[in-house]
Structure formats: C-alpha cells, structure tokens
Amino acid sequence: MDALLPLGTAPRPDSDQDLAARLRAALVGLAGDRVQGLDAAKILPVLDGADVASLDLDLTDVVVGMPTGAQDKPEPWRPQVTEREAAALRTLRIDAHPMVAVDLPVDLTTEITGLQFSWVTAADDTVGVEFVEPTDDSPVSGHARVAVSRDGLAGTVQGLLAVALSGNGIALNDFDLQVEQAGPREASLRIEAGIKKSFLSATVTATASASVDDAMVLTIGDVELSSGNPIVGAMLGAIRGRLEAAAGRKIDLSASLPPGVQLADVQIDVGEDIVLTAQLA
C-alpha cells in the first residue's frame, strides 16, 4: 500500500495539464521541506486513454537536503480502494542538468520503459495511482547516467566529514580525496584527512576499492583505515575493525532487483567528472 500516490478528488485526470498539476502537488507533498524547487520542475505527461504514453520530469535546479528527522516523512496514503483500472506508463524520462543533492550538483539522465500501474479510486471519492512491481511477464528496460564532478564530490565529502567530527570536538584542518579508475567496472578511493583535537593532531588515511564482475556482483576490497600517529591509530581501532570487515564483501546487484528488472551492465568513467552508467536488459 505504500506504493500508492494520491492525486486528489475523483474522477482521475483526463488531460495532460490536469495530470501534470496533480503530479506536481503530490510530489511536493511527498518530498516535504527537505526538497526545494519541485514546484518549478517541468512535468510533461502525455495521456493515451488509461495509459500514460510518456512522462518527462525535468528536475534541473531541484535541491535535496539532508533529512532532519521523522517529521520529514509524510504519512502514507492508505485509502480503502474500491476500484482499480490497469494501465501502463510506456516511457518515463527523468533529467536534471543538474540537481543538487546535499550540496553536490548531480547530472542525471534516466529512461525506463514498460512500467505498469493501476488507477485507483477510494471510498472517500479520491483517486491516485498504485505502482505495480515489474515481473518476468511484464519486465522493464532502460538506462541511467549519473555524473558528479570530482572536485564537487571532494567538497561535499569534506563538508560532511567536518560536521561529523565537530560533534566530537575534532577539527578537520586538511582533506584530500582521490578516485582512480582501474577498469570499466572498477575504481579505488583514497582519503587523507588532517584532524586536530586539543593538543593532538594527526593524519588519517582511508582507502577502499570496488569492482563489478560480468555477473553484476559488486566486490568490496582493500578497505583500510590508518594513522601515522600511534595514539590516533589506537583510537581508530574499533572503527577500523568495522570498516575492514567489509573487505571481500560481495553484493549481487541483480538479486536486489525485482524479477522483472535485469541489470545488464554498469560502467564507471573517472575523469574531471565521475560518471556512472547502468543498462537494464
């Protein structure tokens, strides 16, 4: 039932303009205060009978902030459904050039085809849509591209780390992040951070790597956390143990998806921008 999106009073939208307005209101309400700019986002649906032939969402300049608590999560719509009408969203396109996620500009292009849903009517004379999970009999296909600048990613990670450390009375006085590509589906990460607390100062180094094989299994490797300062190194002991326990962990990316969604390929390209692309079968 959490896959229900309310769209106001019955009857269901019968024009592109009406559907766009109702979708905008629903998305703004669903996003809450942590998302800014949705009220100005471009929403272009094209109705074809009960089906939506296409839906284009342009999220350029939308800003997504950090969640601040449970109050940010709206109450789910749980109506007493009295009627369902099966329909299809043939093509969904989402673009953002860019949007901002936690101070990081993100360039996004996504296209998905073959989505299924139902128009629902509730006992209180409201309507909405109920999303239907893809299956082997009704699969979806598509592709996605996400890009962030290397410098922007470093700045965002530095800012988040500085805030986290300050809560423990630790100052971050130096920071460097390096991302290197080792193959079309493999990358490594290295962070060097200078920290200071009272009279104690040190450099902390964190490294990690990740690779995806042809079976779309993600392997985490080379996870290390260290410091040249023996006192700081001892203080990092518990954290180091938890982090390094992730080394060698394997995650089947395809297994986490519904039966009707098959991940055919992922690629990473590291340059001035870090670009991640994914292809659905």
Plain-language structure description:
The protein has 281 residues and is an alpha+beta fold. The chain has four helices and 16 strands. It has helices at residues 16-31, 150-166, 230-235, 237-244, and strands at 4-9, 35-36, 42-48, 51-58, 63-64, 81-101, 104-122, 126-132, 141-149, 171-183, 186-197, 200-212, 217-227, 250-252, 263-270, 273-280. Strand 6 (81-101) and strand 7 form a beta hairpin. It is elongated and about 70 Å long. The model has no long low-confidence stretch (mean pLDDT 91).
Number of helices: 4
Compute the separation of the termini in Å. 28 Å
Uncertain parts? none
Give the beta-strand count.
16
Q: Can you summarize the main beta sheet? A: 11 strands, mixed
> What is the multimeric organization of the chains shown?
single chain
The amount of beta strand, in percent, is over 45%
Q: What's the mean pLDDT score?
A: 91
Please state the structural category.
alpha+beta
Shape: elongated
User: In angstroms, what is the radius of gyration?
Assistant: 23 Å
As a percent range, the share of helical residues equals 10-25%
How do the helices and strands follow one another from N- to C-terminus?
EHEEEEEEEEHEEEEHHEEE
